[in-house]
Amino acid sequence: MKKYVMSSMVLILVLTACLPSLGGGDEPAVDTVATSVALTQAAQQVAPPAQNPPPQQPAQPTQTLEPDVMATAIVNANCRSGPDVIFDYLATLKLGDSAKVIGMNDTYGDWWQLELNNGTQCWIQADSLTFTGDTKNVAFVTSPATPTPKPKPSWAGGWTSAQMMSANNPNNVEVKTLIIVQNGNTITFSFPAFGNTYNATGVVSDDGLSIDGRAQRANGTDPIRFTFVMVDTNTDQFRGQWYLEGNPSWNGDWCGARNGEIRPTPCRNG
User: Fold this and answer.
1) Cα(218)–Cα(237) distance, rounded to whole angstroms?
2) Contact at 8 Å (CB) between 232 and 88?
3) Are 264 and 237 in contact (CB under 8 A)?
4) 55-64 tens-digit pLDDT
5) What is the phi/psi pair of residue 136, to 5°?
6) Which CATH superfamily is domain 70-137 in?
7) Residues 76, 248 contacting (CB under 8 angstroms)
8) Domain map (residue ranges) of the chain
9) What is the pLDDT of residues 142-169, one digit of tens each?
10) Is 3 left (phi over 0), alpha (psi -120 to 50) or beta?
């Protein structure tokens, strides 16, 4: 800036030196007025244009990522293709296992859409789950179209089953016949195990495809829990598992078949 100002002053002094002397009158000579105008215009041309500061960029807000909401099964829970028991069974979220919550729907009750570890996306009722994280952040997901209801299968009849008797010894398997009696959504049967007779009762799911049950010795000791799930492509086969009620680490596979079918492989459901 100083360089421009000094240049302007030098130019003004040079032009001033070239001015003719003024006469004795009060009015300035015409040439003097023109020269002053020229000097002013020259000074304006020499001065650099004012530099505007660059606009300030607004500060970007810091985004805080909410942690995933997780659901943990408090029972062996059926995971379905939609938020109602009329939707097809897709998988089982086993007791104690967790999955990411990706949606919810309360059209047919309180249902939550999960993404299982293998990538399967399916729905489980809220009363089978506990949650970690803020469920208020879970988006509402529209239910798929309601499928055409299918006739419920029956569990009644004779099943040839294979029960693994020890989780640490997969070769310790007992083959036994289960005569299941079904009355509505309740089933009963008896079976030998560990040198004793166990009496079993269970509740059939609303779609008829699975049983959650409990069995114990005649004297009420050593109760076990079990789950049977019919194979989705063959209702004459089931996959299952059992565990000792007081010690879940003592568990094993339990599967069966009827009407001439062979037992499914793998035996355990889930």
Assistant:
1) 28
2) yes
3) yes
4) 777 666 666 6
5) -65, -20
6) SH3 Domains (2.30.30.40)
7) no
8) 1-19+35-46, 70-137, 157-257
9) 999 988 877 889 999 999 999 998 777 7
10) alpha
Residue with tokens 């807000």: 61
Strand 247-257 with 196-204, pairing: unpaired
In angstroms, the Cα distances linking 102 to 76, 91, 137, 162 are 20, 16, 10, 37
The C-alpha angle with vertex 70 and arms to 269 and 84, in degrees rounded to 5, equals 60
Amino acid at 86: I
- 157-257 belongs to CATH 1.20.58.220: no
- Cα separations in angstroms, 146 against 59, 143, 209: 48, 8, 18
The contacts of residue 83 (CB under 8 Å, 6+ apart) are: 105, 107, 108, 109, 111, 113, 123, 143
> In angstroms, rounded to a whole number, what is the distance separating the alpha carbons of residues 110 and 124?
9
